[in-house]
């Protein structure tokens, strides 16, 4: 059994609303679990595949914040989903700014989304109930834009979305009186006289000038008032004054179109001529994306707001399909902006927070919806954007389960306009909020609509990605053969081979394929996230490694220079010792030589003098006059020979030492050099003796 619990730290509270279906010929596949008879609010449902399901799919259980069964009415849904809290959050507590809010419906086509959000001819939807609650409780604090142009201008100046702001009186006048002669005063819904004493002609002309007038359909004469909500209390900041501004747009084929702007239909232009708007940061809103260039209408009461809403809804794409006579072909966004400023500082700045109510188009299967041409292409885009929405919701829920309280990095909300509009500001604001730049939006409300007698495949697919928790009683491993229509395998089987049975099989196979594709894309997202983490880890590893190398080089260099210093010191010590040794030897030698030179007188030319005429006696006499008398006898001859030998040995040694100390010259060396020269050629005559 696979169980996946998702905690309540998700961005959404997810409610399931079941629509009543009077059909008696269909099998019910969805049951609500009533665990306890006294338990007022069921939260779990079980879906069982149809009895003829050849794939033998398992029974699945899903948990939601709350399940609203078929009998639950509009008011209970409004109250129990927490819409009241959302409104109070947008209004802001006393002395504080409001917080943005989002309420959206999701489901397959015909499951009751539009009914929940916009109601019917007799029943109001969440949008009308919200407007009622807002105007009912803020009435004493609302600014009067009809009597003061200054207020309207200050609201225009405070708007960051490059919007064109009009008063509702001017807007409605331009819409309904142009060419058709239906005056505001004559409209039963508005009473016999204009609501305000101020003629909005300038503003009306302004709206007409931008091509705003457009309506063929007469304005609503009666508006539903059920269910009443006058007993519901809403906290309002009594110290503030408010302005309520309405804007509407739709996302059609992944492009954004203003629903309160000029109507192409009225001008005889094709829908494709409509100018798409951009979702972007503006000069006054550089940190936040906004739908730029919308027409916005400042409403003074509920009636005006409902008429404006009706104008927008008439412009919204709706088409009859096999599943729904009035099927929404676009995702509708209804924005109720609450502008607030301190009552005492009337010229002070306006703060703004928005409650966005979204009626998503339903996912549909072409065969059931019997769509073709442009409607089929629209369905393709709708299904694609819902698949991306499913991915985002699933990833966000998974992330919230794994990392409570943190912002997911990789929710793929930029894949289409719908998810970008729904998520980009939530995630941007979360990141800005972590930096203290911005305030967090409120927890959003998602109402999943389902028809328990509707299409099992598409409903189960939506439940799978929107539920807060799911439980599968048996793991279901779709086999290849189970996803391929039997007919293509050429098997003989007991199934009737009627075209409708084959088409059913084909549909099932396609639904399974779509599910597997969605699973695959989610896995790819996870893979990308993991790859990114791995790359980050690898790059930090590389940084650490190169730092390590640098440190190693630094340490090596430091040790090397220390070693060099020590080596030089050792060298110097060694050389000094050697010099001292040599000096000692030199001085010993010098002393020896000195003694020897002092003790010996050399007669160099006795023979020559005798031969030159001096007699031997004269020579002896001359030598006797010298300090030393050199008498050559045998003993002396021997001693002289010894000395000569010793002298030769000493000279050789001196020459060796001289060579060794060639580089380092010291006084003693100089002396040795001089001496060796002296010995070799100074005329001391030892060589010749
Ligand atoms: N809770 C309900 N009570 C009574 N009728 C309902 C309820 N929910 C839906 N319906 C009816 O079911 C039909 C289809 O509902 P709706 O148009 O709201 O579906 P949807 O989900 O908006 O479809 P699509 O996505 O095609 O626009 C409508 O006729 C609507 O009045």
UniProtKB/TrEMBL annotation:
Family to which this protein belongs: Belongs to the TRAFAC class myosin-kinesin ATPase superfamily. Kinesin family.
GO molecular-function terms, A-Z: ATP binding; ATP hydrolysis activity; microtubule binding; microtubule motor activity
UniProt biased composition (Basic residues): 667-676
Source organism of this protein record: Neohortaea acidophila
All copies of domain Kinesin motor, residue ranges: 11-472
Sorted UniProt keywords: ATP-binding, Coiled coil, Hydrolase, Microtubule, Motor protein, Nucleotide-binding
Residue span of region Disordered: 660-689
Residues the entry annotates as binding ATP: 107-114
GO annotations of cellular component type: kinesin complex; microtubule; nucleus
GO annotation terms (biological process): microtubule-based movement
Keyword Nucleotide-binding assigned: yes
Coiled-coil ranges from the UniProt annotation: 503-554, 631-660
Protein name per its UniProtKB record: P-loop containing nucleoside triphosphate hydrolase protein
């Amino acid at each position: 059994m696979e169980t996946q619990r998702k905690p309540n730290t998700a961005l959404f509270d997810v409610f399931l609303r079941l629509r009543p279906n009077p059909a008696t010929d269909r099998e019910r596949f969805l049951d609500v679990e009533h665990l306890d008879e006294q338990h007022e609010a069921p939260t779990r449902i079980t879906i069982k595949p149809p009895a003829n399901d050849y794939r033998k799919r398992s029974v699945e259980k899903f948990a939601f914040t709350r399940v609203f069964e078929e009998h639950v009415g509009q008011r209970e849904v409004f109250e129990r989903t927490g819409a009241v809290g959302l409104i109070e959050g947008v209004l802001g507590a006393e002395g504080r700014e409001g917080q943005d809010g989002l309420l959206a419906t999701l489901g397959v086509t015909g499951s009751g989304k539009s009914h929940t959000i916009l109601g019917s001819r007799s029943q109001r939807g969440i949008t009308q109930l919200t407007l009622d609650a807002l105007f009912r409780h803020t009435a004493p604090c609302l600014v009067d834009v009809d009597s003061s142009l200054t207020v309207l201008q200050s609201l225009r100046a405070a708007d960051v979305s490059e919007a064109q702001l009009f008063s509702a009186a001017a807007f409605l006048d331009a819409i309904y009186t142009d060419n058709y002669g239906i005056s505001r005063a004559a409209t039963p819904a508005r009473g016999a006289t204009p609501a305000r004493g101020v003629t909005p002609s300038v503003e009306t002309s302004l709206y007409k000038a931008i091509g705003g007038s457009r309506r063929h359909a007469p304005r609503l004469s009666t508006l539903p008032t059920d269910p009443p909500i006058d007993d519901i209390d809403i906290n309002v900041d009594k110290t503030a004054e408010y302005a309520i501004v309405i804007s509407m747009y739709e996302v059609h084929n992944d492009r954004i179109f203003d629903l309160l702007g000029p109507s192409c239909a009225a001008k005889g232009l094709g829908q494709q001529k409509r100018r798409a708007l951009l979702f972007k940061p503006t000069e006054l809103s550089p940190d936040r994306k906004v739908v730029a260039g919308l027409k916005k209408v400042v409403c003074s009461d509920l009636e005006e707001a409902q008429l404006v809403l009706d104008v927008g809804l008439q412009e919204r794409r709706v088409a009859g399909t096999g599943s729904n006579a009035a099927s929404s072909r676009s995702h509708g966004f209804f924005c109720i902006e609450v502008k607030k400023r301190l009552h005492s500082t009337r010229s002070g700045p306006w703060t703004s927070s928005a409650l966005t109510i979204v009626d998503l188009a339903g996912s549909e299967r072409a065969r059931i919806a019997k769509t073709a041409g442009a409607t089929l292409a629209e369905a393709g885009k709708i299904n694609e954007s819902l698949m991306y929405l499913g991915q985002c919701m699933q990833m966000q829920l998974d992330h919230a389960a794994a990392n409570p309280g943190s912002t997911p990095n990789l929710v793929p909300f930029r894949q289409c306009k719908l998810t970008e509009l729904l998520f980009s500001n939530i995630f941007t604001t979360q990141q800005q909020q972590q930096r203290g730049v911005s305030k967090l939006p409120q927890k959003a409300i998602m109402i999943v609509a389902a028809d328990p007698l509707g299409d099992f495949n598409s409903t189960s697919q939506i439940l799978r990605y929107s539920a807060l928790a799911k439980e599968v009683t048996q793991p279901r491993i779709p086999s290849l053969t189970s996803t391929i229509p039997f007919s293509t395998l050429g098997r003989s089987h007991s199934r009737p081979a009627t075209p409708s049975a084959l088409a059913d099989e084909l549909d099932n196979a396609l639904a399974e394929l779509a599910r597997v594709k969605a699973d695959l894309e989610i896995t790819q997202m996870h893979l990308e996230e993991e790859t990114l983490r791995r790359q980050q880890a690898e790059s930090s590893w590389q940084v650490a490694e190169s730092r390590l190398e640098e440190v190693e080089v630094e340490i090596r260099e430091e040790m090397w220079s220390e070693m060099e210093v020590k080596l030089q010191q050792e060298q110097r010590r060694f050389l000094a010792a050697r010099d001292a040794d040599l000096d000692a030897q030199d001085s010993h030698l010098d002393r020896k030589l000195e003694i020897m030179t002092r003790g010996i007188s050399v007669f160099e030319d006795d023979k020559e003098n005798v031969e030159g005429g001096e007699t031997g006696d004269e020579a002896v006499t001359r030598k006797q006059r010298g300090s030393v008398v050199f008498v050559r006898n045998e003993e002396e001859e021997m001693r002289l020979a010894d000395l000569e030998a010793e002298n030769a040995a000493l000279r050789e040694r001196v020459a060796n030492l001289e060579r060794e100390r060639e580089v380092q010259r010291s006084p003693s060396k100089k002396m040795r050099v001089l001496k060796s020269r002296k010995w070799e050629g100074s005329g001391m005559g030892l060589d010749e003796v």
